[in-house]
Batch of 3 targets.
Target 1
Amino acid sequence: MRISLICMGKTDDVEIKKLITYYTHRLPKHFNFELVEISDVKNAKNLSPSQLKKEEAKLFLHHLETTDTLVLLDEKGKQFSSREFSSKIDHWMNISTKRLVFLVGGAYGFSEDIYQRAQEKISLSKMTFTHQMIRLFFIEQIYRASTILSGKPYHND
């Protein structure tokens, strides 16, 4: 299974980039993980939020394959504990998911086209974080799921 995290915008904070690289390198090779950062929409300041979401959707859809399982990182999504999330990853692996794609949208979220295309929505927290920090937190949770699935000691067990 391939796991992709596709994000709108680039990570420009050097410290966050270092931590993202740290956790990315710790992921198991069989996850075939990739982080894709899409350049922001040009002239975004001249677009309404609705228009901007539609333009971002075009960019996202360009990176998706028809067979992808698409999961949105969305504030209205379901929340999981780390163990529950690892079980969800295990489920996707067991049903032979070819490519599992997680999306981090722009400042205004996703267009209706993207919501229609997605199979699921996940929320990392009820709190608000920067989109750059979400990338780090999410990649760390993918790493944590891999350690749980490989039977390594977890947290305070």
Target 2
Amino acid sequence: MGVGCTDGEGVERNWSMQNALSGSTKKMGPGSRRDTLDDHFGDYNWRKTISIVNHIRNKALEAAKL
């Protein structure tokens, strides 16, 4: 009891989606590369934040049925 569940695969999912960037960022300087990666990770996090609303709604509806 008192133990939470952890999704250790979450980080891997994020990186696997960003692998396509490697070709674009390969020849960039360190500053440009970091800015590009920050933009893409920021976009990924924003989309995840927005989509959580539907996830929470669906979980609430599911819980209400019980």
Target 3
Amino acid sequence: MGTQTKIPSWAAGLSGARAVVTGASRGLGAAIALALAEAGAHVLAVARHAEELEALAAHHTEIEPWVGDVTDADFVAELAGKDIDILVNNAGTNHPMLMEDVDTQTLDRMLNLNVRAAFLVAQAAVKSMLEHGRGGSIINVTSQMGHVGSPKRTVYCMTKHALEGLTKAMAVELAPRGIRVNSVAPTFIETPMTKPMLDDPAFMAFVTDMIPLGRLGQPEDVAAAIVYLASPAAKMVTGTSLLVDGGWTAR
């Protein structure tokens, strides 16, 4: 098992918290699960691939693998029955293509995972949090593309703008019941999902030129933002989007 990391004082309130991270087998999700575990939470790491989850769990004693599909109704029903303090709604996908080339299968696949499943997973977590009466924190992983537009990303931008809207509406509705809802909106992060795109030198040049800091983000950059929003340090933060974008959207 991995070495236990000292919990930062501002995140100490996560000790013993119960967290669920979807899309946790690799990339952003794996980094988020590990960061929450290192901050003291017990993490249910959700993904479809058992081997990758087992490899992740080997890094920390507080990570518990949960093989499941967020688009499956049985998984959502089971989630509602868990005891949840923190949900990180991270599962999602992207298929960049020109708008005129988008087929209905791609459209439906992205809407189903990025919007419909995200809503249903959040709804299940809310039911759990309300039942247990301790409040909670829900963090939707969106994208800088939920704030701007970009070529070959009409469907992706649409889904992420939808998730940003859901975040604000949930935050307003659930604040009186002690549940905070925020989003984290990353720029291009070096992950297995982005690697095929970033391997194109022309696209890589476009991305780095658009980021004022001049570099790609790392999964740990996003994980740090998640831990902050889940922690007591963010107790007055709800309904906002924390942009981890190196300045992309500041232009």
